[in-house]
Structure prediction request, 276 residues.
Amino acid sequence: MTALTRRALLKTTVAAGLAGIGAATVGRLAGWAAAKPELLILKTASIEARLMDGAPTQNVLTYGEAGPPPVVRMRKGEPFAARLINGIDDPTTIHWHGIRVPNKMDGVPFLIQPYVYQGDHFDYAFTPPDAGTFWYHPHCNTLIQMGHGLTGVIVVENPKDPAFDAEMVINLRDWRLGDDGQFIEAFRPRDAAKAGTFGTVRTANWLEQPQFDAPAGGLVRLRAAITDVTRIYAFRVDGAEAAVIALDGNPVPQRFTPDALQIGPGQRLELAIRMP
Prediction:
């Protein structure tokens, strides 16, 4: 029969404690591994796109292989990860406009991250603390990169939000295009003393007159982001009941009708629209 001594009892207690700590640690690490988000790939590219009647516009910049930059969707309080791959011959970054991200993820070159040169990549990882409508864009040579199309919309979803019958996301922006559909000078010095250099073609989701289907009588959430640097828009809804429910990613304290509501560059608007 083994004698129960103080030394033996202490050894047994310590071993059991270490086993418990090991099991807890393994379980926690397994939970972290399971929660790792899927990596979103955002690759810059120079494409041609039809932004107006006539010939397609050359050297339009986007993330992906065709069309406007994708709507990036996240969920409030859940980890998000994206890899920026630079496919153009101009160094770039991504700034997550309006989202409270860690400073090292904010996309300002040399201040908090290096340039991403052609063929290189940079991984962004953060957990969005707020729901709402935001947008993303580079912080490098912005007059050209943003002016040529590198502006996309972000939707941070809140699982506690009320349900809508449909949701539409609209990216509003100007383009400086000539009659031939090609880019013209992005900035005119004489406009600096006025309201800025305006574009010549206005689009929603890179279309001049887009149309979207919505369920009759349905409640629609419309998210609009002005990913432009100069243009101020005045919003009005005709033929349907509408109320402003959020501005710049923040719910409004009291809903109101968008009667020629003016929204400037970088701002976002959310409407609840009851379709006729």
In short: Residues 8-34 have pLDDT under 50 and may be disordered. The longest strand covers residues 40-49. The longest helix spans residues 6-35. The chain has two domains: 40-157, 166-274.
